[in-house]
Amino acid sequence: MSDLSLFLGQFLRRPSEIRAIVPTGRAAANEMARPVTRQMEAVAEIGAGTGTITRAILASGLSPERLELYELNAAFCDRLRQRFPRTVVHNLPAQEMVNVGYRELDAVISGVPTLLMPDALQAAIVGAALSRMKRGAPFVQITYGPRPPLSEVVRARFNLTHVKSPRIWANLPPARVYVFRQGA
Ligand SMILES: C[S@@+](CC[C@H](N)C(=O)[O-])C[C@H]1O[C@@H](n2cnc3c(N)ncnc32)[C@H](O)[C@@H]1O
Questions:
Q1: Given 13, 68, 159, 183, which residue has the most CB atoms within 10 angstroms?
Q2: Which pLDDT does position 184 carry in this prediction?
């Protein structure tokens, strides 16, 4: 089954978890992966879906063994394991990364649809990620909305600053990429 059919089929079953009808396009995936370098020791991608951003991350030259993937959806995890057998795939919510991973992370790349999540869930995800990240490491988040994809409450709680990309029109829907850092 193609990625497109798999993605659409899972969206129809779980729209509130997936929140997009097609995978991220190449231009936005490349923007998401921009902060990743081959020298990094460990990186996590959360909400990896069918792996379009994963592919862009690995194109940086990062060794797949250094990439942890967290994805709620079991069918997507099967696809990720098949396609990226040397990465570490966890069929778990991103909030659990604090319980399973042990390496300090140089970056977290997030396709999890945080914008429409309540503050408590955003905070659980971001808090788990930050507890594993090196100080000042980037938390990269894609969004389709006009507002920052983490609420003001959550940004203030974790002392996050951000920069954002221009709107990426070559994506369905058009997207922006935010890079959050703590204490910058
Ligand atoms: C908009 S899709 C993005 C998929 C992929 N990254 C892409 O860009 O095509 C959001 C993904 O986040 C996953 N997801 C939602 N909540 C999650 C959570 N708390 N932890 C991990 N994955 C989650 C969904 O299952 C879905 O695969």
A1: 68
A2: 60
